[in-house]
Amino acid sequence: MIDRTDPPNESASDETLGATQPVTALNLRWLILSLVLLSVLATLGNSLVTAYRVQRDALVDHALQSNSAYAAKVASSLAEFIHSAQNHLRYSASELGKAWGDPSVMRAEALRLQKQDGDFNSIAIIDSTAKVLEAYPDTLQINGSTLRSDAILKAIEAKRPFISSAYTSAAGNLDVFISEPVYDAAERYVGIIGGSVYLREDNALHTLISRHFHHEGTFAFVADQDRQLLFHPEAARIGDTLGWSKTVDAALRGESGSMSVRNYKGVPMLAGYAQVPGAGWAVVAQQPREVSLAPLNTLMRDVLLGMLPAALIGFVLIWFGTLLICRPLNQLSRIARQLSAPQASEQLRHVKAWYHEAFSIRQAMLAGVQLLQAKLGHLNQQVLTDPMTGLANRRAMDQELRRLERTGQTYSVLSLDIDHFKRVNDTFGHDKGDLAIKQVAHTLQAYSRVGDLACRAGGEEFLLILPQTDVESASAIAERIRQAIATSDIPTVGRITASIGVATCEHLPTTAEIVLKKADECLYRAKQGGRNRVESYLSMASSDSE
Q: What pLDDT, on the 0 to 100 scale, is given for residue 23?
């Protein structure tokens, strides 16, 4: 908020003038302390960052290796399942070939195979014309019917062991069909025997994948050659066709390994992938990167907490060291602000300048006291304009407020402060901060009417005095100024915002101090309310009464 102190009169003494000059330079004690702390913090920060990166890379590498091994293990298990199923089907095909066309043998073999191999949800024996000779269980009464699904026709045309892509059967199930060709006693191709795995029901894929250990956040999914999901922890996604996926593409090419990718929701994942031998399916095991790195955050927090006691002790030692070094200079600094005082010379002699630099400064000050006192008389001739912005300075501001108070005029005051100005200086440098201040000053001048007085009260704080203006009109002007500031682009900096407090002597005791105080209270309310807003004294009083 704006520091409301009375400016010196034109005839003020040199001592008073020196005491009211704003201290803009850094305090040496804080400067030394800051430099030492920055050096320590930079070293410590570099160590922590290096440790963090090493641990992060180790955790990421471990997660990638684990997921790669997990995907390979799942792929191997699925390959064993398919190999076992094909062996069972191959044996049944050889038995059927010996008595092809015998309904009792076909029925018995279908029952035996379905009971022996619980991996299949249904068994079908189909001749070379796609006619169903035997099905078990035959819930749809398809015995004797001819099938026309692409998966069945491709299996018949293949005349070899065949694994279909996922397809929707006549019963509405999402199936994978595994088949073996049947040759009769004369080695003629007569048909196929196959088993269906219902993907949306409990099946071998669910059982095999659930056997494997997967740590928190890790899950696996399986896609066929057509990129359809055969298994996914989110059951609703089974049967979906995947879009672009680096891991699935790599697995379908026969590659295995791991990589960092983003899933379809844009979440960073650490994934391992492998291909199922014999089926050409892609298996991907992945874990959110955030879950993998969660232990690292706990570790770094514990490290920082463990370092805190030593850091506090070091800070105390540095603090006392800077006090000892800066004490003579602080004493000289205080005397320097009152060099015109009669006791200045005596005070200088009592300063314990125990090191060379302080001693030299003290001697130079003693030699220059008389010359400085002679020149201080000229300092009362101060200009009324702030040199950076061209706005009125504090002296002109206070003179105008005293004039309005003497004449008893109604007036309003806008107290304006740039939001997060320190962030501008820290991010872009003080030269860009000065540019932001000049931009706000230009906006104030542009929106000032004839008779208004725009002032720079100090730093990033401004004041606009509006004679003969009530609080509603002043609030409207403040809102236009706020919008203009918020929508103006500043080179390099971009856009900034400002908070504005509005107060008027129309609803308050007509003393400048009270008006300024209420404007500051409104400005504080605007800051507390989220910044980049205008708060007037009336609105503040209304909200307080509620």
A: 45
Has residue 20 got a pLDDT over 60? no
348 phi and psi, to 5 degrees? -60, -40
3-state SS track over 475-526: HHHHHHHHHHHHCCCECCCECCCEEEEEEECCCCCCCHHHHHHHHHHHHHHH
pLDDT band per the 50, 70, 90 thresholds, residue 446 = very high
User: Tens digit of pLDDT for each residue in 290-343?
Assistant: 888 888 888 888 888 888 888 888 878 888 888 888 888 788 888 877 776 777
Please give the average per-residue pLDDT across 121-138, as a whole number.
Answer: 88
Task: Give the active site residue among 95, 109, 134, 460.
Answer: 460
Q: Pairing relation of β-strands 162-163 and 122-127?
A: unpaired
Contact 144, 132 (CB under 8 A): yes
**pTM of the predicted model as reported, rounded to 2 decimal places:** 0.52
Query: Whose CA is closest to 226, among 182, 173, 279, 277?
Result: 279
Please indicate whether residue 460 is annotated as part of the active site: yes
Report the largest interatomic distance among the alpha carbons of the chain, rounded to a whole angstrom: 131
Composition of the chain by helix, strand, coil, percent to 5:
50, 20, 30
What is the rounded distance in angstroms from the CA atom of residue 193 to the CA atom of residue 203? 19
413 neighbors 515 (Cβ within 8 angstroms): yes
| pLDDT attached to residue 34 | 83
What's the rounded Cα separation, in Å, for the pair 167 and 150? 8
Residue 423's Cβ-count burial label (10 Å; 0-12, 13-18, 19+) is exposed
The dihedral region occupied by 191, where left means phi > 0, alpha psi between -120 and 50, and beta the remainder, is left
Residue found under tokens 């792929």: 75
Reported as a single tens digit per residue, the pLDDT across 415-433 is 999 999 999 999 999 999 9
Bridge partners (DSSP) listed for residue 257:
273
Distance between CA atoms of 459 and 416, rounded to whole angstroms? 11
- With H, G, I as helix, E, B as strand and everything else as coil, classify residue 324: helix
